Amino acid sequence: MDDFIKNAIQSVLPSLNEDLLMAVVERLNGHGVETEEDLQFVTEDDVKDLLKTIQAHKLISSWKKNDPFASVMPIIPIDLPSLSPSTSSERSSSDDSQAVPSIVSPNSSSMNWPEVIDIPFDKFPHGLKNALRSGNRPSPAERRHMVRMVVDVMRTFKPNPNKAQCASVAKAIVAQYPDSFIDKTDDGEKLGCGYYSLLMQIKTRVEHVNRNNDAARMRKKKKNNNNEVAAANEQPAVDSYGCINWQPNELPPGETDETLQFKKGELIDHYEQFGPTQSDNENIEQLMSDTYILQRKMLNSRNPSPTIPEFRKNWPYLFVERGLFVHFHKLTGIPIHMRLREAILKKGMRIIKFFESQPNPKRGVSLILEQFQSEDCEMVAPAVVLLMMAYFGEKESALFLKVDALDTEEEVENRVDLPKTPHLIVKGESIFTAKEWMVVLDGKVAYVISPSEGSLVKALATLFASYYAFNYEYQEEAATTLEFIQRCLIRINPEAGTKCTTTNRTSKKTGRLVQRKREIINPHVATFIKNLADFEWTSA
Q: CA nearest 315: which of 298, 333, 339?
């Protein structure tokens, strides 16, 4: 029985690997193929995970030639097979073209061509194919070479593919070879959707090859229909963006409304008696954790929203760093002070060395590097934040405000026009030498971080946590740096959206307001993280 199936396959695919041949025979035998007539009922779905697309087309087409009901063979997209070292080694023994499977496309007229496009992985340079087989990341040059080939194939379907079509292709490539192409942080966690940097490379290449082709660059005017409105509404809400426990619905086990209100009273009484000095008391932390649901109900209430003084009156320990960190941990699942300090220790000097390696850095970047004198964590932390602000073209005053080192809380509020959005008040002439910090919310001093070991990292953690705890959007003037801190240092990586929902921004070239494009991830952040990864690859 097996012989006629084997012969039927070999008559169409004579060079097929023996192991692969027997695997197809066993598959068809298991599906109930008993006679030669049964072969006409075999579909591509039956062999799609074993054979390459053209091989499957040839085989099925040949077997259906004598079938009067099969004058038109349906086109069925082939799913992407996973590539593992074991399967790669088996196939490469007989035919190098079988070693790296490809994304496929049976017909250029298909409306869904980006989902089934045929990428010629078998024609890639030897080094790139080896990287894909072994699950390694290709070199920047190899990756650019691949992008050029991918775009060449895409343009056989459409001269100027739009962003959505580029995204489909990038997503498919990353899905097939995640180890080689997925966007990820130094910690190995997926960055956003995982394919944004490849999408941008593909889209940039498309724009480059169409730069002198006005006809190809013309697009139809978008229609403002209900589908676009629905797509816009799919963006994550800014308040709950990146949160895992934004508004719990169930009380903690064993608790009632009455017991939680009693614990809230205990927190207020304890603060009135002892003040913030005992905020690290384990009992206080437990009470803050137990009453989290009540804190969120007040923080998320609307019409009208409570003021900062009202929050402070009801939840005084929410305005002590330790209490805020407990709340942030419940909200996001992240111990922010520890996470930020570990990130600075692990990644800080890498980022600084990246900027030191640049041949022609921006003037702002050069000035900060000149000020940076020590590899101590307390010096690395401000250097990293200031370097990123300079690199992204954001002003230092968008996050930091300087006051006299002797100014009190009351004097700061009376003498300085404080912003509504979270800012860090620096007491002294320099961020590198300041010993005391304040965080302002809604134009009021909300936190005072006194001199102590690690006070600067604690101040930065307090500043960032306040955006999430109090449902603040990132101010546009510092949104890119804040998203970098969020994604690269704190490692909050939603697949899409942002905490900056400003739809208009001021053009740095013209000074005019321009419409902000909605992006999966901030493109400047994605590009920097990719460049940093390339730098580490080339300098390793």
A: 298
H helix runs in 135-219, sequence order:
140-154, 163-176, 178-181, 196-209, 214-217
Q: Which two tokens stand for residue 25?
A: 């025979």
CB atoms inside a 10 Å sphere around CB 61: 13
Burial bucket for residue 84 (CB in 10 Å: 0-12, 13-18, 19+): exposed
- Residue in 527, 519, 520, 462 with CA at minimum distance from that of residue 488: 527
**Closest-CA residue to 384 (of 405, 369, 363):** 369
Angle subtended by helix axes 18-30 and 2-12, to nearest 10: 130
What is d(CA 254, CA 527) in angstroms, rounded to the nearest whole number? 48
Grouped pLDDT means (10 residues each) for the chain, 540 residues: 75 76 77 76 77 79 56 35 38 38 42 76 84 87 90 88 88 89 77 85 88 60 44 52 90 94 95 81 91 95 87 95 95 94 91 91 89 79 94 94 90 87 91 89 91 80 96 93 93 81 59 60 85 69
CB distance 180 to 137 below 8 Å: yes
Cα 469 to chain center, whole Å? 21
Spatial CB neighbours of 374, under 8 Å, sequence gap ≥ 6: none
Exposed, middle or buried by CB within 10 Å (0-12, 13-18, 19+), for 310?
exposed
* Token duo for residue 460: 């930065």
The candidate with the shortest Cα–Cα distance to 121, out of 98, 151, 155, is: 98
| 345 in Cβ contact with 309 (< 8 Å) | no
The string of pLDDT tens digits covering residues 256-280 is 999 999 999 999 999 999 888 766 6
- Residue for token pair 């809380």: 409
For residue 426, what are the β-bridge partners? 402, 437
295-348 confidence digits (pLDDT tens):
999 999 987 888 999 999 999 999 999 999 999 999 999 999 999 999 999 899
Phi, psi of 81 (to 5 degrees): -75, 150
For Cα atoms 290, 463, 410, give the angle at the middle one, nearest 5 degrees: 100
Q: What is the 3-state secondary structure (H, E, C) of 387-423?
A: HHHHHCCCCHHHCEEEECCCCCHHHHHHHCCCCCCCE
* Secondary element (H or E) of residue 505: strand 504-506
Residue by residue, DSSP assigns 325-377 as HHHHHHHHS--HHHHHHHHHHHHHHHHHHHHHH-SS--HHHHHHHHH----SH
